[in-house]
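RECORD TYPE: protein structure
NAME: Cytidylate kinase
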Amino acid sequence: MNDATEAARIAIPVLTIDGPSGSGKGTISRRVAERLGWHYLDSGALYRAVGVAAAWEGVDLGDEAAVEACARRTRIEFRDDAQGEPRVIVNGQDATDRLRLETSGAAASAIAAMVGVRAALVEMQHGFRRPPGLVADGRDMGTVIFPDAGHKVFLTASAEERAERRHKQLMQKGVSVKLSSLLGEIVARDERDASRAVAPLRPAPDAVVIDTTGIGIEAVVARVLALLDGMRHEPARP
Ligand SMILES: Nc1ncnc2c1ncn2[C@@H]1O[C@H](COP(=O)(O)OP(=O)(O)O)[C@@H](O)[C@H]1O
Ligand SMILES: Nc1ccn([C@H]2C[C@H](O)[C@@H](COP(=O)(O)OP(=O)(O)O)O2)c(=O)n1
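PREDICTED:
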């Protein structure tokens, strides 16, 4: 990339929304992106998609080189269906429902600890930075992928509330799962995501942390938009 192209790329505004599972990243990011008319990157879906592609291809998840090669060849597309629902197409197949399973989240978390897998997905994530702007959700959006983002948010909520939210979400989809086992899975996944050596889950030093425990979706959206508004009107520092 030449200097002029790089300068044009980094002039495109980015809002990063990182946080643990069930903190509301996807829900809040989608709504904020819609209000702003910006693009949206669900980076977790990329890790989930690689995990699913690896399972389809019989790749051993313990073999780092094989999983990295799988990450490099996996084709992932985001599309809205006729009802406007977002779908994720992995190597030409609609994998949306499978990607949402907690087993896919756990597989994604395991392969996301591999440095080669993370490296394989960097360019694809940068490709989402297109005018007029991008809202990017994940674990390392503000720390690693878009460290120059002008707006960074880290969402949290108590583990109990996050498990309850996920439980309700799964029940609505007709997936029956015990709340206690879900809580255990979520806590274990957060622990692995936060303790890994490469791009661990943690707030960027310049992120605004919002604890969403007991705060409704629209109130969180309003807080994020207010933050953005404040930053946009902040006078440039000398
Ligand atoms: N602030 C909130 N209050 C109550 N429920 C929420 C809140 N934020 C998100 N949810 C719900 O919690 C569930 C998980 O949210 P999601 O956006 O998928 O989280 P994440 O992307 O962080 O895993 C969804 O059903 C969503 O509607
Ligand atoms: N930027 C990202 C996004 C997700 N991951 C990994 C770690 C997460 O446990 C899995 C799944 O992420 P995803 O955001 O889809 O999961 P939740 O919706 O928060 O439950 O992927 C990551 O390491 N880096």
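COMMENT: The longest strand covers residues 151-156.
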